[in-house]
């Protein structure tokens, strides 16, 4: 039996992990993410994920575990946008992203405590935001939803609906590419028992389906 530890308090990542149909527990890695300062957004998110995973590994006695840790950042013209400091910061980010393309980088690591095997991945998506109004920004920020999210938005928000186009994996923008995760588990010889229909449905919000190239690739390999 494979038993996972998710090193995240994010409810979005927890809902995505459930699609694997494996038992998991949650342990939050209380780390100072600002200690990871690599200027390359792709390397930054991977290094942060590894930082979280190794911190959790030091707290676990049982070795029959696989730790999953992840980190996401938004990059606008190469500048990383993390979680907002406050409502004003969230407003500034959303105005900067409005009607623009940007990159979302989500890195994750799988760490097998039994044999030390480690798989690192980064998934990048290009996101185009719609031309929302200042009033919509104010209402969304007042809802509190942006405050725990890189770039100050959730692609899946059913009211704000900030994204008009996506080139990449929808769940990666949510915080963890479930499709890339399935492929990474194969590298650890963990058999796939995910509900693939539910995986596909996870790429849909507000009656809009965002095609996932990674998902389609996985289905073609299955």
- CATH C-level category: Alpha Beta
Tally of domains: 1
From the spread of the alpha carbons, the general shape counts as globular
CATH architecture: Alpha-Beta Complex
Please outline the helices and strands:
Blueprint: E1 4-6, H1 11-17, E2 24-26, H2 41-57, E3 66-76, E4 79-81, H3 87-97, E5 101-112, E6 118-129, H4 134-142, E7 163-167, H5 170-174, H6 178-187, H7 196-201, E8 204-205, E9 208-209, H8 213-221
Parallel strand pairs: 1-2, 1-3
Antiparallel strand pairs: 3-4, 3-5, 5-6, 6-7, 8-9
Characterization of this structure:
The chain has helices spanning 11-17, 41-57, 87-97, 134-142, 170-174, 178-187, 196-201, 213-221, and strands at 4-6, 24-26, 66-76, 79-81, 101-112, 118-129, 163-167, 204-205, 208-209. By secondary structure, it is α+β, with helices and mostly antiparallel strands. The longest helix has 17 residues, at 41-57. It is globular, with a radius of gyration of 17 Å. The model has no long low-confidence stretch (mean pLDDT 92).
Task: Describe the structure concisely for a colleague.
The protein is an alpha+beta fold and 222 residues long. Helix content is 33%, strand content 24%. The chain has a single domain, classed as Maf protein (Alpha-Beta Complex), CATH 3.90.950.10.
List key phrases describing it.
222 residues; alpha+beta; Maf protein; two-stranded antiparallel ribbon
